[in-house]
């Protein structure tokens, strides 16, 4: 019986996870450039991809320097979201009394636009990094709590009863049953949280800042420098993708069994 031919190098490259999004991005950029040429859209409304690439090339050192405050505020806000969000979710999932008091307030807090309360942080904490970190934290906190609560509540009660029947303490049962079962949901919330933390950091920079990508965007809007504004948007998108990828890598290290099952389902479909 003849052996199946191994896939060629080109086939492996085309089947790589990053190739399809990259090709789709190329199609979007090509359609963007084509639309500008066909409909004669003026540069003061939408810049051409070439102009944006030129700004990225010429102003890359400045954009890289301005991206550091945004990255720092995003990471700090995201870490605070995880640090506080997961314990709060544990309390909500473990006590119906706490859930009845806290959960409605969390939902209510999401109806308040963060851009509306961000100026208060500037009044209270000044123009430093703290208002940006708080804005990033507030946007990233809720997805972590909601996903973690769902994960903790989805634990099979029979598994918990079996662990308790084996004379496991409450902490041992939580470590061996509840937490591993909830980890996929927790990481799903963390992935959403890290992208929203980027938005929160930029919101804080919009309100009051003299550095960061949000400051670059605000300055570009004031001078109608749309190529620089689009370049700043590209930097933010890249930042979000990188942070999302880092969280995904951590998930693969922490819960490899779930990731392998998820990948098998995706590739099988």
What does this protein structure show overall?
The C terminus is likely disordered. It is globular, with a radius of gyration of 23 Å. It contains twelve helices and no strands. With 269 residues, it is mainly alpha-helical.
- Alpha-beta classification: mainly alpha
Low-confidence stretches: 264-269
Element string (H = helix, E = strand): HHHHHHHHHHHH
CA(first)-CA(last) distance? 28 Å
Main beta sheet: none
Shape: globular
Strand content range: under 5%
Query: Quick one: how many beta strands?
Result: 0
Work out the helicity level.
over 70%
Mean pLDDT: 82
Number of helices: 12
Output the radius of gyration. Answer: 23 Å
Pfam family, one: BPD_transp_1
Keywords: Cell membrane, Membrane, Transmembrane, Transmembrane helix, Transport
Main location: membrane
Membrane topology: Multi-pass membrane protein
Pick out its properties.
single chain, 269 residues, mainly alpha, 12 helices, 83% helix, globular
């Amino acid at each position: 019986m003849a052996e199946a031919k191994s896939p060629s190098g080109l086939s492996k490259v085309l089947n790589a996870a990053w190739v399809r999004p990259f090709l789709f991005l190329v199609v979007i950029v090509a359609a963007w450039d084509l639309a500008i040429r066909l409909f004669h859209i003026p540069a003061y409304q939408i810049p051409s991809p070439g102009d944006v690439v030129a700004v990225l090339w010429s102003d890359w050192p400045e954009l890289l320097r301005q991206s550091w405050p945004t990255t720092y505020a995003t990471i700090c806000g995201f870490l605070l979201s995880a640090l506080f969000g997961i314990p709060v979710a544990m309390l909500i999932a473990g006590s119906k009394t706490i859930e009845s008091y806290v959960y409605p307030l969390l939902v209510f807090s999401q109806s308040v636009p963060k851009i509306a309360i961000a100026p208060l942080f500037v009044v209270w904490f000044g123009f430093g990094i703290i208002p940006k970190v708080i804005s990033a934290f507030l946007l990233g906190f809720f997805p972590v709590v909601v996903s973690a609560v769902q994960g903790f509540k989805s634990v099979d009660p029979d598994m918990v009863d079996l662990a308790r029947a084996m004379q496991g303490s409450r902490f041992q049962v939580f470590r061996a049953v509840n937490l591993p079962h909830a980890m996929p949901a927790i990481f799903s919330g963390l992935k959403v949280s890290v992208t929203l933390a980027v938005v929160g950091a930029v919101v804080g920079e919009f309100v009051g800042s003299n550095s960061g990508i949000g400051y670059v965007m605000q300055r570009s809007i004031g001078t109608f420098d749309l190529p620089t504004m689009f370049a700043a948007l590209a930097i933010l998108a890249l930042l979000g993708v990188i942070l999302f990828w880092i969280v995904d890598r951590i998930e693969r290290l922490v819960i490899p069994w779930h990731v392998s099952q998820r990948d098998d389902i995706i590739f099988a479909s």
